[in-house]
Specification:
heterodimer; A: 360 residues; alpha/beta; Purple Acid Phosphatase, chain A, domain 2; six-stranded mixed sheet; 10 helices; 16 strands; 30% helix; 21% strand; B: 186 residues; alpha+beta; five-stranded antiparallel sheet; two-stranded parallel sheet; 28% helix
């Protein structure tokens, strides 16, 4: 099924690189008629706002082609009784970069609904595809678009999904990932929003007060400078990536064994960024397991803009699949690329792919 | 001799009092209403008293986070959170307007329901799935989690009176939800 998806759909839309692959029964995801695809952070804003930032959503044309391919795949798979579920893992829109903080409830409400509307209309192509009734994308709320839950048309957006629904209970969950980030949790939303909106464009603070405010914002955000980036000051290091060929879609032809480019807790070769949030996600899962009597084995997140699969086998088993982003950059096999990743899960076999426009 | 200043002052006071009392009577009133959402975002109407099948229908909807198209758990804690409410809705002796409402104020819920619902009752409902509005509007209660409205229907025939039976319930996603970003994990 993975091969069919790659050869007949994804590789027709894009050049595909394998970032990471993990196949293991410990994922407890043996479903033979259940295929899940995870589209990570897109951070869409309207075209006027896009001009004032030094970065933006990558390869929008490619994204539309890929989503059309997913729609074809879902349609065809339905006929074979295979359920295909597509998720968008949060930060679909970037309300922090689009909408300034307002100083009254009425003003905030108006700015929110007008801001959302502007983005959706400016990005009509991808919006119609992703939010259409046939693809039925399941949206998660991210930190940059959490306020979408106030908008009636986004009634379906959720904070978490646990799956699959089964007698034994789900083995997996997906969420944006910001809940694991202490700094996101501790900073008030209005401060975060203002920081991104004002300090995103290349503007210097005009008054001493604004300067102090900027200092506090920067301190709390670990010296992140929104002029140049959101999450990654430098391209996220993916280590090795493998370009896949359309006439050779089986990843087994490229790698030894079942797994490729897995970051493991306790491995001295792994950097801190490679293992970010594995411990937090594992603790989160343990908390839910205790309350529900489940046995969650892995989580799929976005948020960090760093595609990877990380394992914690120090006490039991837990896997974190970070499906990356479509904004900012990555570096794989010594080559810098614009982030354009997706996560794919089927039959105890989970992968993250990096995409590029064909012949581009 | 008439004190001209005092007269002017009296006339001014009378004028202001008229303005204060007449103005509210003339301004448009805002009456809250509830809307029954699209098919994917509602469940019911389910007959009351609640039987197992009706309870499972509502619970499945809540566990899916209020979206029938979703194939996953969104709110797995819903079973525990609403267990006692389902018990009440299965009890025929509870299903009367008097039990749902505050004795002194029919705009407010009874104490027993405060665990799940916000205080104010909304009596206006827009339901485009019907041909016409119900003759007497249902009792609509906002879920404390901010996500849902629970709409409790009265019978569409009968003599009325002080205590009317509640015969059906529908749960619909609120037009705007009020979620806690980093709230208690369920």
């Amino acid at each position: 099924m993975h091969q069919r998806f790659l050869k007949d759909y994804l590789m027709k839309a894009a050049d595909v690189y394998l970032v990471s692959r993990f196949r293991d029964n410990r994922l407890k995801y043996p479903e033979a008629n259940d295929f899940r695809i995870f589209i990570p952070d897109l951070h869409l804003i309207d075209k006027t706002r896009e001009k004032v930032y030094h970065y933006g959503t990558n390869y929008l044309d490619l994204l539309e082609r890929v989503v059309k391919a997913l729609l074809d795949f879902k349609r065809d798979s339905n006929q074979d009784n295979i359920h295909v579920t597509v998720y968008q893992v949060g930060d679909f829109l970037d309300l922090w970069r689009e909408i300034p903080v307002a100083f009254s409830v009425e003003e905030a409400s108006k700015k929110l609904k007008d801001g959302v509307r502007k983005i959706l209309e400016a990005r009509q192509g991808i919006t119609v595809l992703l939010r259409g009734a046939e693809l039925k994308t399941q949206f998660l709320l991210g930190n940059h678009d959490f306020d979408l839950h106030y908008i009636p048309e986004f009634a379906s957006s959720a904070l978490r999904y646990y799956f699959p629904i089964s007698v034994q209970g789900p083995s997996a969950f997906t969420l944006h990932g910001d809940v694991f980030d202490l700094f996101e949790r501790n900073m008030p939303a209005s401060l975060k929003n203002l920081g991104v909106y004002i300090f995103g464009p290349a503007a210097k603070p005009a008054t001493e007060k604004l300067g102090e405010f900027r200092e506090e914002t920067m301190k709390a955000h670990q010296k992140k400078d929104y002029k140049e980036f959101i999450q990654q000051p430098r391209p996220a290091n993916l280590s090795e990536v493998i370009p896949l060929q359309q006439d050779k879609p089986a990843v087994e032809d490229y790698i030894q064994g079942d797994n490729f480019n897995i970051k493991k807790v306790g491995d001295p070769a792994c950097k801190e960024a490679d293992l970010k949030f594995v411990t937090e996600a594992k603790e989160f899962a343990a908390m839910v397991d205790k309350e529900q009597g489940w046995d969650l084995r892995f989580a799929v997140i976005g948020h960090t803009h760093h595609a990877r699969i990380a394992l914690d086998e120090t006490d039991g088993f837990f896997a974190l699949i970070d499906c990356g982003a479509w904004i900012e950059n990555c570096e794989g096999s010594g080559k810098v690329m614009s982030n354009a990743q997706i996560g794919v899960l089927y039959h105890n076999d989970v992968r993250v792919y990096q995409l590029k426009p064909k012949n581009g | 001799m008439v004190n001209r200043r005092a007269l002017l002052k009296t006339r001014f006071v009378i004028f202001m009092m008229v303005l204060i009392f007449v103005y509210p009577a003339c301004t448009p009133k805002k009456v809250p209403f509830v809307v029954v959402r699209e098919k994917d975002f509602r469940v019911g109407p389910v007959d009351l008293p609640l039987q197992d099948s009706g309870k499972n229908e509502i619970l499945t909807f809540l566990v899916k986070g209020g979206d029938n198209s979703v194939r996953d758990y969104v709110d797995p804690g819903a079973d525990k959170a609403y267990a006692d409410l389902f018990k009440l809705l299965s009890d025929p002796t509870f299903l009367y307007t008097s039990k749902f409402r505050n004795e002194g104020d029919i705009g407010k819920i009874s104490k027993i329901l405060e665990q799940w619902f916000e205080e104010s009752i909304v009596y206006s409902l827009i339901d485009a799935t019907r041909d016409r509005p119900p003759p007497i509007a249902p009792i609509s209660l906002k879920d404390k989690n901010g996500k849902y409205w629970w709409v409790f229907y009265l019978p569409e025939e009968g003599e009325g009176g002080e205590d009317i039976k509640i015969v059906q319930v529908l749960v619909t996603v609120a037009p705007t939800k009020h979620l806690q970003q980093y709230g208690k994990i369920r």
